[in-house]
Amino acid sequence: MSMDSGVWIEGEVRHGRMLGRELGFPTANLDVDDESIPDGVYVSRVVIDGREYRAVSNLGSNPSVGEGPRHLETHVIGFSGDLYGRVLRVELLQKIRDERKFATLEELRRQIETDCRMVMSSLLF
């Protein structure tokens, strides 16, 4: 698949609420101004220091944890390190589900696990 096939979002990684880290899925948070991209959870790709990573990205307002400003949260599978303040480019390859509100954080954690498994088995890479 060509690197030009998805929708790119680029921005400086900013601090979030650290909830993803608490759930076992740390995320890089980016502000998003483009309203034309639909909210949801995406199979995505990130290149960090020349290495390509599979990722799962949520674009929206986090309804399970009290809503907030619309932004992109990306869990970069297999990456550990500090991305705060760095400019990151995330390619949204395919929407896998709508953003939704979960009754508990445990339900949300289980869904993120499922989303990550889906990304790892994706044929888009």
Mean pLDDT: 91
* Rg: 13 Å
Number of helices: 2
Q: Helix-strand pattern, N to C?
A: EHEEEEEH
Quaternary structure classification: single chain
Distance between the termini: 7 Å
Strand content: 35-45%
Shape: globular
Classify the helix fraction into a percent range: 10-25%
Query: What order do the strands of the largest sheet run in, or round the barrel if closed?
Result: 1-6-3-4-5-2
**Structural class from helices and strands?**
alpha+beta
Largest sheet descriptor:
6 strands, antiparallel
Number of separate strands: 6
Uncertain runs with pLDDT below 50, 5 residues or more?
Answer: none
What can you see in these coordinates?
It is a single chain. The protein is of the alpha+beta class. It contains two helices and six strands. A six-stranded antiparallel sheet has the order 1-6-3-4-5-2, with helices on one face. Strand 3 (40-48) and strand 4 form a beta hairpin. The longest helix is centred in the C-terminal third of the chain and has 16 residues, at 105-120. The chain is globular, with a radius of gyration of 13 Å.
What's the layout of helices and strands?
Elements: E1 7-12, H1 19-22, E2 28-31, E3 40-48, E4 51-60, E5 71-76, E6 87-97, H2 105-120
Antiparallel strand pairs: 1-6, 2-5, 3-4, 3-6, 4-5
Put the structure in a nutshell:
The chain is of the alpha+beta class and 125 residues long.
Task: Supply database-style keywords.
alpha+beta; single chain; 2 helices; about 120 residues; about 35% strand; globular; 6 strands; 6-stranded antiparallel sheet
